[in-house]
User: What shape does this take?
Amino acid sequence: MKANDVIQWRWLLLNEMNGKDFYQVAKLRQEVFIIEQACLFADLDEMDLNTYHLLGIKDDILVGYLRVLPPANKREPVYFSRVATPKTHRKSGIGRVLIQKALDFIHEHYQGHEIVISAQTYLEKFYNEFGFIRIGTPYTEDGIPHVAMKLN
Assistant: This one.
């Protein structure tokens, strides 16, 4: 079974989510970014308000998520972040499908804009597979090593 075969993928703005969608997104982000990574930070932020959220639902459960932050103007890059899958669905290919869907969405809606991410350093090779290259030097964000990357 492939990650994309049985998953329903939906792009939603925050105001288009129903209560269950929002709950599952908040719960997954809390589990991955706060509990698993033992990192206390304000995960829900103002950026969520005007962001496109990609939800991958399988058997009524959120199994993949990320958000795309639109550019502020014609010169600004597009960012995606909060890429997450629950522990139970890792190593299934869902992460690769998430990234490809984000890139397809960005190319369709924000053609010509640079794509930039802040990646945890251990995922640098993963993002290299999609054409991302490191820009700048590694840094620490919320106690976790990161590197800025852009699509080459």
